[in-house]
Write a structure and sequence with these properties.
It is elongated, with a radius of gyration of 18 Å. It starts with 14 loop residues before the first helix and ends in a 10-residue tail after the last helix. Helix 2 runs antiparallel to helix 3. The longest helix is centred in the middle third of the chain and has 29 residues. The chain has a domain of 59 residues. It is an all-alpha fold. It is built from three helices and no strands.
Length: 87
């Protein structure tokens, strides 16, 4: 997705985000939004079995994984363009 050059206020995605194919982009999004929380849920479920308590570690670690995945995805999409690709 390219933004017009005459609009300086338009947010610009990183070069990797602009030039990536749709399957590569969807893979990164799905890994960030699905795999990290799912992995956190699995680790939290193991912690729930070992640590009998009132806290649901599965939910807590899954939310932590979701937060980390969204931050990672946001940072990837807003990464500045490398100097050698600018023309």
């Amino acid at each position: 997705m390219k933004y017009p050059a005459h609009n300086p206020n338009a947010s610009v995605l990183s070069v990797r985000a602009q030039d990536s194919s749709l399957p590569a982009f969807l893979t990164r999004v799905s890994l960030s939004i699905l795999a990290l929380p799912l992995g956190g849920y699995v680790l939290g479920s193991l912690a729930d079995r070992q640590l009998q308590g009132e806290i649901s570690w599965a939910i807590a670690v899954a939310l932590l994984g979701l937060t980390a995945g969204l931050i990672h995805l946001w940072m990837w999409m807003k990464r500045p363009a490398p100097e050698q690709t600018l023309k």
